[in-house]
Amino acid sequence: MCGEVQVPEDHLDVCRVCNATGQNCRVDETTQAGDGIENTDFVFYVSARQTERCHKGLTVAYAAHCQQEASLDRPIAGHANLCPDSISTKPQELHTLISTVKHEILHALGFSVSLFAFFRDDDGNPRTPRNPDTGKPHLNEDLQIHQWSNTTIRKITRQNWSVRGGHVNKTIDMMVTPRVVAEVRKHFNCDKLEGAELEDQGGEGTALTHWEKRILENEAMTGTHTQSPVFSRITLALMEDSGWYRANYSMASPLSWGRGLGCNFVMRSCKDWIQLNNAKGHSIHPFCSKVKQDPLQTECTDDRNSVALCNLIRHNYELPEKYQNFDSISNIKDGEEVYYGGSVALADHCPYIQEFTWRNKNVTIRGSHCHFVENNPKAEKNYALESYGQGSKCFDHGDAMWEERNCHHTREWQHWGSGCYRYNCSDGRLHIFVGNYSYTCYFPGQKLSISISANDWLHRGALICPSCEEMCGEYFGARDEECRLREEAPPLNKYPRDYLQCGASALSALYWYHQPIFLAIVSMAIVLLSRSRR
């Protein structure tokens, strides 16, 4: 067997019988060698069975290697089992499913606690000394795995790790192979970072065999999927540092989480990060401190690829001391902070901005990632006139709720704060599309007032312009162009704007290009008429 798969007989060599130390091996004369598989470096066996292991926690899939070659210890066969009950077939979930399969393949190829001790340097020499009796690394009796050397994984103690009410010492395991060290230092902009932190929670199958969720949140080789998984240069560096592969770094996906945030972010607790930045009046992203409760006020992820919520919640139990990340929380009674933390345990209960899904009776209706057209809300529920699909990004709504109004009713939606919209970059400016209209941004923080008739309702709200450099800098740079300088925005009447009309035949449709004084007089009449019809 290789995992849950019965290996075909013609894939197998003869059986060899060895002594208790793996020495003095001999061929079992009762067996015969199969034909094998020619011109193949690795055989991957895949199954989809709802096994007992699938029922442990929130397991979606699991994988491991089955066989290593004799000379350089490289895995040559492995398996993965996908848990059918945990797999969604919705189109918008396809990216996540493909990412899960890639994740499991990498485990079988080398990203595994059972293979780290077999890593080799660029000259093919073992990074971990071998036991002369077995020719393999020494066995860790407690973990029942081969023990790696300090040149592969090293224990580091972080002193004065800030938690609620004081400090503790935190001991972590860090991958310290050369390419990994270079990549994480570059990514976080921290030259003294010792290496890449490995997960310390989750038990067997998760701890030590994934990246730490707190600092590499949506890197695909963390221990749980939460949002927009990417395979970064850091993971490719680990695979190359195994000594078995050469990585094509052009295939790595950009990782925005933690990028350039420095040593304070990657080497200190999230409590420290939140407190230090609050004291300076700076953003605490990617972490957050807004308790998730009704009405839901959404935000945008840092890369603006998704509408998101702060995952700070009240747990039904007091969190362990090392995961208590707040001395106080706005609108939360003193002493209750011990129950509050991020919903993702593997991230040390650090609360952060997270993509989410809308569900009805535990059935996923749609997601919040901007790039999937399947996430578009139904027309009758698209109160903020969002548009999901390729070419869309997340933009903030500002402080006021959006509203819908007709001649008889006005309704406000309780879930608000941000939404997905199409945009483009041209003429040195950022342009955001809402409905059939285009709105030009002239400076960051500019409030775009929206009033558009659609689906028999007048939709009113606002969008906040991000900086042109954030949204268009790379696009313009590739074309030897640049964002134009900040300038005063045109008056509101120069922007598209619809108005509510209620039965007054003398009032023709009003458009944004009418004269300002005419707009002012007629719009007052419309407001009065609409009020009289309520």
TrEMBL record:
One of its GO terms (biological process) is proteolysis. It is found in: Cytoplasm. Zn(2+) binds at H103, H107, H210. Its cofactor is Zn(2+). Its EC number is 3.4.24.-. Its main location: cytoplasm. Binds 1 zinc ion per subunit. GO terms for cellular component: cytoplasm; membrane. The active site is at E104. One of its GO terms (molecular function) is metal ion binding. InterPro entries: Peptidase_M8. Keywords: Cell cycle, Cell division, Cytoplasm, Hydrolase, Membrane, Metal-binding, Metalloprotease, Mitosis, Protease, Transmembrane, Transmembrane helix, Zinc. The chain crosses the membrane at residues 510-529. Gene3D superfamilies: 3.10.170.20, Leishmanolysin , domain 2, Leishmanolysin domain 3. This is Leishmanolysin-like peptidase. Belongs to the peptidase M8 family. It holds the Pfam family Peptidase_M8. The lineage of its organism: Eukaryota, Metazoa, Ecdysozoa, Arthropoda, Hexapoda.
